[in-house]
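Example for tutorial group B:
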């Protein structure tokens, strides 16, 4: 009889554990995309991201880690989010840059319009560390 109870207790315990686990997973999944969902409702975010995805930026940049160029989140943290800095960084995207983060230069992007480059910077400035 005791063994029987023990077996039931074990089954209940295992059941409880596994259902707990699946709850945790669901919570984790619903917690992490929330800020992204907020951001993606922002038209500056969507347009900038689309332009960056279409261009070659992501061969050298990642959002949150240094690649060849600095992480976009680091760029966002370094500069005050002013119109003047949007112009400044857009200019560097168009003409190329170098010497700020490392001696490695950024290639120029003369094929982009100033408007598009500014839109990319607006997207970068929406990223927070
Ligand atoms: C060939 C690699 C490469 C590509 C492609 C590239 N970058 Fe960069 N980017 C760099 C490097 C390297 C730096 C750091 C330059 C420095 O130290 O001044 C940089 C710096 C930057 C900065 C910060 C500039 C500063 O002075 O702080 C921004 C903003 C930026 N890139 C945006 C972009 C965007 C947007 C694109 C796509 C249109 C792009 N990059 C494509 C390599 C690249």
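The residue assignment follows.
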């Amino acid at each position: 009889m005791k063994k029987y109870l023990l077996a039931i207790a074990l089954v209940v315990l295992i059941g409880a554990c596994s259902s707990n686990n699946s709850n945790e997973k669901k919570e984790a999944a619903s917690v992490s995309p929330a800020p992204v969902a907020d951001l993606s409702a922002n038209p500056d975010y969507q347009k900038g991201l689309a332009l960056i995805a279409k261009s070659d930026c992501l061969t050298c940049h990642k959002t949150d880690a240094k690649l060849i160029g600095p992480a976009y989140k680091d760029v966002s943290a370094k500069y005050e989010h002013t119109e003047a800095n949007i112009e400044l960084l857009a200019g560097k995207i168009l003409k190329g840059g170098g010497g700020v983060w490392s001696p490695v230069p950024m290639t120029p992007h003369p094929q982009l319009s100033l408007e598009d480059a500014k839109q990319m910077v607006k997207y970068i400035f929406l990223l927070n560390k």
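The mean pLDDT is 83. Compare this with the pattern of hydrophobic and polar residues in the output above.
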